[in-house]
Amino acid sequence: MKHNDHKDICAIIVTYNPDSTKINILIDSLVNNVEKIIVVDNSDQPGSKASDLISEERNRIIIDMGSNTGIATAINAGLHKAVASGAKNVILFDQDSKPGPEMINILVRAYDDLTRNGKRVSSLGPRFHDYRRDTPTPFIRIRHFRLIRSKCKTGALIPVDYLITSGCLIPVSCLSDIGFMREDLFIDYVDIEWGLRANTKGYQAYGVCDAVMEHSLGEEPLRLLGLELPTHNVIRNYYMFRNAVAMYKTGYIPLMWKFVDGYRLCIRFVIYSGFLRPRIKNMVAMSKGLMHGIMGKMGKYQK
């Protein structure tokens, strides 16, 4: 990749009943920074289809999935389309993200620098900020049975275990080795599982501190004892607990990672059951998720 030469970059945006203004602002911000934009639409509400909200032009392709097929399946549909179109690199986005004006250029420069130094790069992602939280979200890595939260410094490239999907730049060449997203997870832990799988193949993901993006992660944070804790709705809590257990059952996830993440999952169960409304529904959903994860009952949640 060359700076300011984006002919080989394809943006993939996954939408689900998007806000018309937000999705068009995102697309407008990408038009001059990538060659092609693929919108993969998981919408299931009348009038919320991407094809109704987005003007389809030469460099914008809309894939209508027909219903909510899950984030992993939607991303994979976009990846297959991008690969077939000859893209060398892809950058993934959620519908509510706002990339900084130089974000893609900075990610490209970081990729060039890393590969020149012989690094096998699986993905690069920006530092993102949720406007509802007081501090930027740190990059995360687990080492020596401890969760390390790496705060950014100007110019830093931080090795991480995984990156959130949105804003993630992926060289297409690594997909044949690492593989695509795990579709039976549906949503949640999709980015974590892929990132850890990439690590086992000898690749490394990097957080790029100078690249900036606004992104809303989950629901309104839970403020408890002076802390800001990320939260999700009831059904997302089901997926989080089910998919965590499903991931722990795989052989390629490091034992250290399973231990630390499992400990954090237990803490979440206690806090969400006791303090996150609706408390009983959250407790039931998380318990069902744990059970289904153990049983191997995957895919889209069925009542």
How confident is the prediction overall: mean pLDDT? 91
Domain tally: 2
CATH class of the largest domain reads Alpha Beta
Measure the end-to-end span.
Answer: 46 Å
Helix content: 25-40%
Question: What is the CATH H-level superfamily of the largest domain?
Answer: Spore Coat Polysaccharide Biosynthesis Protein SpsA, Chain A
Annotation, overall tally of beta strands: 13
User: How many helices?
Assistant: 9
The coarse overall form would be globular
Radius of gyration: 19 Å
CATH architectural designation of the largest domain: Alpha-Beta Complex
Descriptors:
five-stranded mixed sheet, four-stranded mixed sheet, alpha/beta, globular, single chain, 303 residues, 13 strands, Spore Coat Polysaccharide Biosynthesis Protein SpsA, Chain A, 2 domains
